[in-house]
Amino acid sequence: MPGAPTTTWAPAVDRAEGPLYLAIAEAIAADIASGRLAPGQRLPPQRSLAQRLGIDFTTVSRAYAEAARRGLVEGRVGQGTYVRRRAAAPLPAASGLVDMSMNLPPRFADLGLEARLWEGVAGLEQDGGMPLLLRYQEPGGSGRDREAGLAWIAPRLPQAEAARLLLCPGAQGALLTVFSLITQPGDAVAAEALTYPGFRALAAHLGLRLLPVAMDAEGLLPDAFDVVCRAEKPKALYCTPTLQNPTTATLPLARREKLVAIARHHGVPIVEDDAYGALPAAPLPPLAALAPERVFHIAGLAKCLSPALRIAYLLLPDATLTARAAGALRATAGMASPLGAGIATRWIEQGTAVAIRDALRAEAGARQAILAEALSGQAFVADSQGFHAWLPLPAPWSRGAFLAELRAAGIGAVASDAFALATPPEALRLGLGAAEGRGALRQGLAVVAQLLRRGPDRPRLVV
């Protein structure tokens, strides 16, 4: 309040216990809790407190900023820093970045399985030998690598054939190969209204015009796709039918069947990004199983095995297209990494890949349980077999304000703008797998939950 006397408050801090600015912020919290600092009370000016404690001004400034971040104090222009009259529940102190921006597979804790992974890598010396290091490989992978790819996708696509399969340098390399083959600059391509940012970047690079197809809670709407086909005659449809990124939706079987029927009617090829298809224990038939003559199916290993391998299996509609795609692959990337392919092949042949997938499933389930507990009572969308979540924000939150609060608390997330082909909704995607462990995930989600309960603060000066 204007004219309020300056308090003589000074924190009792132990200078040997961690960063001094955090110690001061903790002292503010403790003194508010004990009643030593009352709501509305003015804190000493930063320079005065710095002189009193014999420390530099920036340390006090950081301490006040940290206290403001936790909702303990607020700055008033020209008046100073005050204990909040209606103090929001303080946000937990951030101990480094809790990253929920990247959508990575979660790290599992299984030392025996970790040893099997490295044994598979080490075994390349005896298995492939020096040619893996000193020779180019054929575009699309060796015969053995293709057979391993067929074995990997067989539970979902048992009718796939080696003549229609290519190894690509990751899903992004497969997308580049396919769209280099079936589109020209200026062509229109239909995609889910909220779609994978990597595809948006690729489309911009190739000069493609993206047409948003409306979605609901179960994913892409076939009738909306039909409308787009009639109005725009797109060259292709790109979609992720299983555990869609970012919404987590999985298209029901009836909707998949209707979608491929519409694509057949209009003569539109489908590019199916099956990045998460190996994760569900009881997967629905991929679009490629329902319309093998029309679907380019991409089964990447980044989400279900390892992002480091940079391997994806591309199943094409026919052998003629496979030969053309191999030429496109040769022209754009040359080949998939023989080392990455060799590791993937050994893991698949030895059963290690299935063990990794199962471990990821288990860890994803544990992290989904943490999410459900942390955000109990809040509106969010998730799938128990995936490792990301979609968070529609309640009014009056805006995605920009919410994201700014998260960043101030050391939490990474991604706003809907990264995915939207039309007007972005007020929503965020949370990646549950990037946090180093379950404890870090709990810490990050505690901040998310607290912000949702608290609502946006009125504008204030943080000093």
Task: Describe what this molecule looks like in 3D.
With about 475 residues, this protein is α/β, with parallel strands linked by helices. It has three domains: about 60 residues, Winged helix-like DNA-binding domain superfamily/Winged helix DNA-binding domain (Arc Repressor Mutant, subunit A, Orthogonal Bundle), CATH 1.10.10.10; about 110 residues, Aspartate Aminotransferase, domain 1 (Alpha-Beta Complex); about 240 residues, 3-Layer(aba) Sandwich (Aspartate Aminotransferase, domain 2). The protein is about 40% helix and about 15% strand. The protein has a seven-stranded mixed beta sheet, sandwiched between helices. A four-stranded antiparallel beta sheet has the order 13-14-17-16, with helices on one face. A two-stranded antiparallel ribbon has the order 1-2. α12 links the parallel β10 and β11. The relative contact order is 0.14.
Kindly provide the name of the CATH class of the largest domain.
Alpha Beta
> What quaternary form is this?
single chain
Helix content range of the residues, please? 40-55%
Q: Sheet bearing the most strands, described?
A: 7 strands, mixed
Helical stretch count?
Answer: 17
Taking all Cα atoms into account, the compactness measure Rg is 27 Å
Q: Please, how many domains? A: 3
Strand segment count:
17
CATH architecture heading of the largest domain = 3-Layer(aba) Sandwich
How much β-strand is present in the residues?
5-15%
CATH topology of the largest domain: Aspartate Aminotransferase, domain 2
